[in-house]
Amino acid sequence: MVRAWLFNDDGTDQRLPHKPNPEVYIDLEELKQRSGVSYWKLDADNYEEEGKLAKIRAERGYNYSDMIECTPEKMNNYEETLKRFFQEHIHADEEIRFVLDGSGYFDVRDTNDQWIRILVEKGDLIVLPPGIYHRFTLDEKNYAKVTRLFCGEPVWTAINRPADEHPARQKYLQMASENFKESVIST
Length: 187
Hints:
two-stranded antiparallel ribbon
């Protein structure tokens, strides 16, 4: 089950949970309503046999995938890369990540421009809609093994904030005004 909460920016290490006091949790339906984010829980050890990922890929047109291990031992310029991932940005396409092992946080801006922190762990599949302001960081374990999925050829272009005039951002705002009727959400 998705674990998300309002982000408390207290200026400490980005890899900490940053939960407010008192803690304010966001359930899956509220996450969808506030951000358009989609989420599924899969069996990361048996996802091929389980068939859920294949079904999601077919339904949503994800025909390309690769895998990345985010860890100091396997990434060149680890600290710089982590800082770049944490820079607030949008993409013109969906950002789709399936966590095979480890954990981290996606922070997404909701429709009120408030940060929501989403913990992603082994078995979580998350889809961020095009045009949503977001960022990513590992947690204190400094490890995540993730499959990245795409429709067509992969596009890695991050468009840093401000990007309010970008067509993907404009479409996102339109989807938000329609309560994200175009986005899909399942568990």
